[in-house]
Amino acid sequence: MNEPTIHIGRKISKIRELRGMKQEALAAELGISQQAISKIEQSAEVEDSALEKIAGVLGVTAEAIKTFSEEAMVNYFNTFNDTSSGFNYHCTFNPIDKIVELYNEKVVLLERLLQAEKEKNDMLKQK
C-alpha cells in the first residue's frame, strides 16, 4: 500500500494562516517575494534548507510542519472545551476587585509620598 502524499506547501499555508500571518509578511521575513511564498505553498515538496527557514519564521520546527495534520489540530482545540479531565480554568478572583485593590494601594502610597514632600518643604521653609 502506498503512503499518502505529504503536501508540505499546504501545511505551510495552514500553519501560516493559523498564526494569522499573510504571505506578504512571511515573504518579508524571509527576504523573498510574495509570489515565491505562493509558489512554495503550491509545492508538494520543499527543500530542507528552505523549510528550516520557513519553520523558524513561523515559530515551529521543520518536523512540526512535516507532521502537521488538520485532524490533530481539531482534536487539540477540542480538548479546550473538554471539562472531563477535572481541570477547569476559571478565575478564582474578581479581576475588577483586584484592580480596585491595586488602585487603592497606589493612592495610599501617593498620599504618603505627598505628605513626606509637604513635611520636607515645611522643614526647608523653617531654615
UniProtKB/TrEMBL annotation:
GO MF annotations in UniProt: DNA binding
Superkingdom to which the source organism belongs: Bacteria
A Pfam family assignment: HTH_3
InterPro entries xref list: Cro/C1-type_HTH (IPR001387), Lambda_DNA-bd_dom_sf (IPR010982)
Span of domain HTH cro/C1-type: 12-65
Membrane-spanning residues: none
Lineage: Bacteria, Pseudomonadati, Bacteroidota, Sphingobacteriia, Sphingobacteriales
Coiled coil segments of this chain: 99-127
Protein name per the record: XRE family transcriptional regulator
Keywords: Coiled coil
